[in-house]
Amino acid sequence: MLAACGGPGGSSDGAADRAADSAPDRVPDSAPDRAAPERSGTEQSRTEQARPDRSSPRDDQDTPAAQISTFALDVDTASYDYARRALKEGRWPEPGRIRPEEFVNAFRQDYAEPEGDGFAVHLDGARLPAGDEAVLRVGLRTRGSDAAARRPANLTFVVDVSGSMAETGRLDLVQHALHTLLDQLAPGDQVSIVSFSDQARLVASMTPLTARSELHAAVDRLAVDGGTNLEAGVVAGYQEAARAYRSAATNRVVLLSDGLANQGRTAWQAILDRVKEHAGRQVTLLTVGVGREYGDELMEQLADNGDGAAVYVSTRAEAEKVFVSQLPATLDVRARDAKAQVVFNPAVVAGYRLVGYDNRALTAEEFRDDDRDGGEIGPGHAVTALYSVRLRPGATGQLAQAAVRWQHPDTRAPAEESRSIDAGDLGTAVWEAPLRLQVDVVAAAFAGHMRDRQAFGLDLPALGAQARRLAGVAEDPMVTELAALIETARSVSG
User: Which neighbouring-strand residues pair with 369?
Assistant: First the structure.
């Protein structure tokens, strides 16, 4: 069932609504420890029976807060990309690095765009085989833009050149990606490059793209040496971005690293405290993870709390997708501090659980607190949240209302958009639902299985059969790859 893919922070009585923390029968936090060592499929199967059952939604508590789910939007995809690499190398992904929402958000959606610069809100869902269980999908979409029409960009690249980056697929991949991106940027853009190992060094101060040859030469000069003082690199990068800040431009720091910090302060909160003032000046952060082993939590939390996103690349094709297809077209910011809130009708919904977004949970009151950090969303981005819901037998009427709140990227003026859905709109069985909803369900279930062996009550063979069926009709290489990854997981887990 869908609930099995969701962490405790997204349940009707979990961290998503801390106001209900004192309610009886609170489910303990059973999310896997991020620091836990990687285990083989055999080792995981031995502990499968010891895991708590997260297979169904909790009954709602009789409080207003328990009927409300609130979270900051997130467009990260690093977790899916990391798991894909691990499986292709014959390794079972570390469960603590599996974030189901990043699996879902890695796949293309078909939500209609809004007419303006805000969000379109899409709601649909389907019935699950188990009685009154259903899946609710909340889809949010911003309007796309032509890369040629975007505002100019100030990009500060912070490149890890420590000893661990010598491994093939790390610094060489970063240099290839930077060379490729430099050839894609517009003449009005500017780029600076900071490298770091034991200390940080300004390799190229903010340089117009009219001097591409100088920037290409600076990328070629990057060489591996020393330890990993990631704190020094990030601080120096933000200082350079602040020095060259242009109010009429998109200002962004791009951190490229394996995230294996071993010098200076190595905790994300301590690093962000050093750059909080600069980050508050509307300088967003993109973290790009590389390497077979990398500091996932550090890179993800830096991105989430630095008003940005986290991605992971392991091949030249993936790097080109990020730096050529995605980054230039999404450099603008459509919405700042974007948050979602779903209010369930207790007369219709007996219980619910949010799939993923474990560390993005907010209290109900923080939805309209414009000082509370949310997510930064670019042009054409889609964000999807899945809920497992238990319906009251025979109940009819409004099931839930979903709202998104954001701030204008320049003026910080707040705005909201909302939409509701009735129980009668969930009449279709899940495997007869719209194609993209089915793909989202399979992606979330696959993540849930790899994280704690709970996946809609389906085992890998059944999940693989649905993925193969979808791959046959989707005409989408990523869905075909998903089906192949599920088959690979079967062999890896034994």
Answer: none
